[in-house]
Design goal:
Elements lengths: L19 H9 L4 H14 L47 H11 L2 H6 L1
Helix pairs in contact: 1-2
Protein backbone atom coordinates (compact mmCIF):
# COMPACT_ATOMS: atom_id res chain seq x y z
CA UNK A 1 0.00 0.00 0.00
CA UNK A 2 2.38 2.76 1.17
CA UNK A 3 1.86 6.20 -0.33
CA UNK A 4 1.81 5.08 -3.92
CA UNK A 5 -1.38 4.62 -5.86
CA UNK A 6 -0.17 1.43 -7.53
CA UNK A 7 2.99 -0.52 -8.20
CA UNK A 8 2.92 0.89 -11.75
CA UNK A 9 3.11 4.53 -10.67
CA UNK A 10 6.64 5.91 -10.63
CA UNK A 11 5.80 8.56 -8.04
CA UNK A 12 4.86 8.84 -4.39
CA UNK A 13 1.31 9.99 -3.92
CA UNK A 14 -0.88 11.18 -0.99
CA UNK A 15 -4.01 9.28 -2.03
CA UNK A 16 -3.57 6.40 0.42
CA UNK A 17 -3.89 8.84 3.32
CA UNK A 18 -7.64 8.64 2.68
CA UNK A 19 -7.68 5.06 4.00
CA UNK A 20 -5.70 5.50 7.23
CA UNK A 21 -8.84 4.83 9.31
CA UNK A 22 -9.46 1.59 7.43
CA UNK A 23 -5.81 0.56 7.72
CA UNK A 24 -5.87 1.29 11.44
CA UNK A 25 -8.97 -0.89 11.86
CA UNK A 26 -7.27 -3.71 9.93
CA UNK A 27 -4.03 -3.39 11.92
CA UNK A 28 -5.86 -3.43 15.25
CA UNK A 29 -7.71 -6.59 14.22
CA UNK A 30 -4.86 -8.54 12.67
CA UNK A 31 -1.23 -9.33 13.23
CA UNK A 32 -0.09 -8.07 9.83
CA UNK A 33 3.15 -6.19 10.48
CA UNK A 34 3.60 -5.35 6.79
CA UNK A 35 0.30 -3.45 6.59
CA UNK A 36 1.06 -1.70 9.89
CA UNK A 37 4.46 -0.60 8.58
CA UNK A 38 2.91 0.69 5.34
CA UNK A 39 0.27 2.60 7.31
CA UNK A 40 3.01 4.22 9.40
CA UNK A 41 4.95 5.03 6.21
CA UNK A 42 1.85 6.72 4.80
CA UNK A 43 1.35 8.78 7.96
CA UNK A 44 5.02 9.71 8.22
CA UNK A 45 5.24 10.66 4.56
CA UNK A 46 2.16 12.84 4.87
CA UNK A 47 3.62 14.68 7.84
CA UNK A 48 6.72 15.74 5.94
CA UNK A 49 5.63 16.57 2.38
CA UNK A 50 4.24 20.05 2.81
CA UNK A 51 6.27 23.24 2.61
CA UNK A 52 7.29 24.40 6.07
CA UNK A 53 8.41 27.63 4.41
CA UNK A 54 7.95 29.16 0.94
CA UNK A 55 9.54 27.07 -1.84
CA UNK A 56 10.93 24.40 0.47
CA UNK A 57 10.40 21.89 -2.34
CA UNK A 58 11.31 24.49 -4.95
CA UNK A 59 7.68 25.49 -5.47
CA UNK A 60 4.79 27.00 -3.59
CA UNK A 61 4.13 28.78 -0.35
CA UNK A 62 4.25 27.67 3.25
CA UNK A 63 1.64 24.94 3.84
CA UNK A 64 1.33 23.96 0.16
CA UNK A 65 2.13 20.49 -1.07
CA UNK A 66 2.48 18.85 -4.43
CA UNK A 67 0.41 15.91 -5.59
CA UNK A 68 3.47 13.87 -6.36
CA UNK A 69 7.11 13.37 -5.62
CA UNK A 70 9.06 11.30 -8.13
CA UNK A 71 11.57 8.86 -6.67
CA UNK A 72 12.74 7.89 -10.14
CA UNK A 73 12.83 9.53 -13.54
CA UNK A 74 9.84 7.58 -14.87
CA UNK A 75 7.44 10.49 -14.46
CA UNK A 76 9.70 13.46 -13.95
CA UNK A 77 8.43 16.08 -16.39
CA UNK A 78 8.99 19.33 -14.49
CA UNK A 79 12.19 21.18 -15.21
CA UNK A 80 13.99 24.01 -13.50
CA UNK A 81 14.77 27.16 -15.46
CA UNK A 82 18.25 25.77 -16.17
CA UNK A 83 16.69 22.69 -17.83
CA UNK A 84 17.54 20.19 -15.08
CA UNK A 85 14.83 17.76 -13.98
CA UNK A 86 12.79 18.41 -10.84
CA UNK A 87 11.50 15.55 -8.71
CA UNK A 88 8.19 17.18 -7.83
CA UNK A 89 5.30 18.67 -9.71
CA UNK A 90 5.18 22.48 -9.59
CA UNK A 91 1.45 22.64 -9.05
CA UNK A 92 -0.72 23.40 -6.03
CA UNK A 93 -2.97 20.45 -5.22
CA UNK A 94 -5.36 21.30 -2.37
CA UNK A 95 -7.00 17.85 -2.61
CA UNK A 96 -3.62 16.27 -1.75
CA UNK A 97 -3.42 18.30 1.46
CA UNK A 98 -7.04 17.38 2.16
CA UNK A 99 -6.24 13.68 1.77
CA UNK A 100 -3.47 13.90 4.32
CA UNK A 101 -5.54 15.94 6.77
CA UNK A 102 -8.37 13.41 6.37
CA UNK A 103 -6.01 10.57 7.22
CA UNK A 104 -4.52 12.31 10.24
CA UNK A 105 -7.71 13.77 11.68
CA UNK A 106 -9.78 10.61 11.96
CA UNK A 107 -9.47 7.55 14.17
CA UNK A 108 -5.67 7.68 14.14
CA UNK A 109 -5.78 11.16 15.72
CA UNK A 110 -8.36 10.05 18.29
CA UNK A 111 -6.16 7.16 19.32
CA UNK A 112 -2.68 8.70 19.21
CA UNK A 113 -3.07 12.45 19.74
Amino acid sequence: MNSETSIANPHIHPMSSNVVDELLYFVENSEDKYVKDRMLDTIGWGCQTYNRYDKEYDFGKKGWMSERFCHCEGLVAEKYSDGSLASTWFCLMPWASGSIIDGLAGNYWDKYK
